[in-house]
Design the sequence.
């Protein structure tokens, strides 16, 4: 008689898609943490795994369109999986106007179109994009779950968060009517036309999709602890959007509790009274020593840019925002994160007959004309910039003072014939209005590695 092999119930994957408030971060690069990183702590790992694919700077449009994001997530999905969908922070980038409509207006009035395509309109394209995700998740035999975006820490007083902190732009938004741009518009509090969260709830009801109200949950959490405590403990320094490890874990616990209450994988969720242990040091430095080799050398790399223009100044290159790659244009207002289509790119290609182990990436960064210039340094592979990792973040580079960046070891290997891209993605952090005359300077770039 043949033996019968009893297998456990197949593990279910929970895929999380969204923005920087959800995404993973390199702990040696930043104290930012996304709640998606810690969601798996509250599931039984024998039956449920979390695939956190939140992406810093993403909106519903850019996450859907970029090949390394939504198309990549779909290849990782299996029948029976769940997909948690949280967007709004970056959909708001065009003050409530869909950026494609705004570009039509700009071109019609003889102005250059914007290259940052993240902005959507809550009651039109934002809704439509959510429906696209839902339809495609269901077509793959998986279950979509809409998740209200976490609040920003925009306190009015001890008992109130600002309306836009809850992703309702009704107090100040733009719209285009009859070919005319109308700015600084306002609608009453009971008018939800510019409320991204309300629109998400309507889509959930229309499409019969579970809705997890993490917006209200984080609103109540912030008010419970108060502005001072939230600022000191739950958010990154000088940041009203991105959470610390403690804040991210508290929000992940809220999300898990809401899933359990909704009956979504409830039997595999445990909500402990105490949070999982918080790291003693949020910026953990690697203890691995650098591998010395007689073959160590400095490799040539190619430099290119997208939506930036460069000029030589002294011993450094300095870069300014540009909508066409040639002419300086103001840095946009209200940016709090990277823009995936604006970057300085350093590309290194491994020989056809051997891989490269990258042992070090070094450079000096500086800010000119400002102390709010900020950046990420990301790595990715090939033309589609896949397998993306953020290994450096700096919010507020010191003005006119070089900041050395040294990543050693990098844990990066470039396969034979493949190309590694190292991208510096700058933004002018949280400025109230567009700004010119501000630069990010790059000098003393050195990429070291060993042929394998």
Sequence:
């Amino acid at each position: 008689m043949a033996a019968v092999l009893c297998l456990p119930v197949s593990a279910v994957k929970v895929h999380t898609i969204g923005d920087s408030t959800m995404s993973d971060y390199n702990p040696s690069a930043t104290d930012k943490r996304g709640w998606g990183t810690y969601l798996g702590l509250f599931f039984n790992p024998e039956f449920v795994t979390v695939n956190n694919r939140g992406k810093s700077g993403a909106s519903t449009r850019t996450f859907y369109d970029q090949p390394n994001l939504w198309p990549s997530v779909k290849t990782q999905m299996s029948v029976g999986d769940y997909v948690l969908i949280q967007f709004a922070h970056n959909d708001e980038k065009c003050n409530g106007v869909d950026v494609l409509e705004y570009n039509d207006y700009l071109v019609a009035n003889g102005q250059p179109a914007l290259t940052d395509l993240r902005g959507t309109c809550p009651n039109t394209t934002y809704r439509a994009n959510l429906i696209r995700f839902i339809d495609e998740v269901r077509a793959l035999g998986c279950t979509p779950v809409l998740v209200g975006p976490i609040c920003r820490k925009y306190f009015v007083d001890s008992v109130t968060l600002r309306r836009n902190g809850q992703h309702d732009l009704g107090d100040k938004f733009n719209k285009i009517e009859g070919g005319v741009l109308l700015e600084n518009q306002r609608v009453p509090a009971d008018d939800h036309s510019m409320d991204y969260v309300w629109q998400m709830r309507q889509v959930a009801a229309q499409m019969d999709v579970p809705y997890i109200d993490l917006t209200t949950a984080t609103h109540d959490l912030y008010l419970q602890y108060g502005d001072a405590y939230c600022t000191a403990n739950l958010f990154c320094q000088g940041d009203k959007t991105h959470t610390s490890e403690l804040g991210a874990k508290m929000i992940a616990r809220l999300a898990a509790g809401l899933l359990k209450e909704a009956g979504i994988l409830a039997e595999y969720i445990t909500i402990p009274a105490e949070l999982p242990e918080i790291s003693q040091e949020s910026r953990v430095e690697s203890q691995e020593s650098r591998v010395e080799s007689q073959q160590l050398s400095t490799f040539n790399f190619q430099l290119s840019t997208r939506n930036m223009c460069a000029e030589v100044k002294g011993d450094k290159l300095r870069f300014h925002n540009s909508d066409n790659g040639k002419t300086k244009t103001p840095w946009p207002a209200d940016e709090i994160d990277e823009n995936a289509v604006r970057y300085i790119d350093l590309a290194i290609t491994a020989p056809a007959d051997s891989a490269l182990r990258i042992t070090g990436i070094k450079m000096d960064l500086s800010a000119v004309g400002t102390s709010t210039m900020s950046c990420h340094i990301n790595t990715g592979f090939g033309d589609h910039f896949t397998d993306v990792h953020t290994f450096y973040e700096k919010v507020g580079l010191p003005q006119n003072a070089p900041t050395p960046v040294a990543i050693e070891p990098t844990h990066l290997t470039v396969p034979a014939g493949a190309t590694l891209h190292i991208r510096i993605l700058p933004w002018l952090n949280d400025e109230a209005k567009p700004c010119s005359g501000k630069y990010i300077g790059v000098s003393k770039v050195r990429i070291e590695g060993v042929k394998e």
Observations:
- The helical segments are 60-65, 70-75, 99-108, 122-139, 196-207, 214-234, 245-261.
